[in-house]
Amino acid sequence: MEWRDQGILLGTRRHGETSLIIEVFTPSHGRHAGVVRGGTSRKIAPILQPGAQLDLTWRARLEDHIGAFTVEPVRSRAVAAMGGRLALAGLNAVTALISFSLPEREPHVPLYHRTENLLDLLDDTDLWPLAYLRWELSLLEELGYELELGSCAVTGAVDDLAYVSPKSGRAVSRVGAGEWAERLLPLPDVLRGLGDGADTEIAQGLITTGYFLSSHLAADLGDKPLPVARARFVDAFNRRL
Q: Which residues contact 223 (CB under 8 A, 6 or more apart)?
């Protein structure tokens, strides 16, 4: 069995004395693991940093075996990730959420391309937070938890939408919310693709996407807690408000 693809390195772990097991996210083969023999060597180890773009060849005797990777670097994102606390926290959040939420070996081509584009913005501190929020929306949509934010779930109105129902993921207007407003999640304009992406609105948006990641996605995966890396990114972002 053999295939070749490009992919984003999600993480590594030791395998024996000189090898590593790496996990990558590829467009055609999804989240996939394999062994890199000699992966701890001085030649290869610097290449195998989370977020790196790799050219990958995977081989195994049988399809269900873990197999072995041959890797070649396409581009590193290490310098961008080390450019500041927010960038590093963001990279860790993205790779951790992909590892946590995607089933193994299942292609998610649109999400892959959105992820690649997001990571290429790592060193742009102005664009990154909004791009990351939109990526979380894409992650929810890709896995069947799309938020429906175009009209009020109660009245059908398309104006004055201010909340999201934590149960249905649908928008709710101020009028439709009534006395239930305090029990609903915030719906800033930026979550609907409107406005200039002010940090305060992005922070509100992250509250809402975080709720659905935790209470819907994670709950359906066996009620496992979200990766701590996501909370660390939100904390790093909130510190700059």
A: none
User: What is the pLDDT at residue 196?
Assistant: 83
pLDDT digits (tens, 9 = 90+) for 119-164: 999 999 889 999 999 999 999 999 999 999 999 999 999 999 999 9
Crossing angle for the helix pair 85-101 and 109-119, nearest 10 degrees?
A: 170
Give the pLDDT score at 161: 98
Q: CA 62 to CA 54: how far, in whole Å?
A: 23
User: Which of 137, 194, 132 shows the shortest CA–CA distance to 161?
Assistant: 194
Closest alpha carbon to 5 in 96, 109, 100: 109
Whole-prediction pTM: 0.96
pLDDT in tens, 213-223: 999 999 999 98
| Residues whose CB falls within 8 Å of the CB of residue 24, separated by 6 or more in sequence, listed in order | 7, 8, 9, 10, 31, 32, 33, 34, 54, 56, 69
Measured distance CA(238)–CA(233) in Å, rounded: 9
45: tokens are 């180890």
Burial 25-36 (b: 16+ CB within 10 A, else e): bbbebbbbbbbb
| 8 A C-beta contact, residue 59 and residue 67 | yes
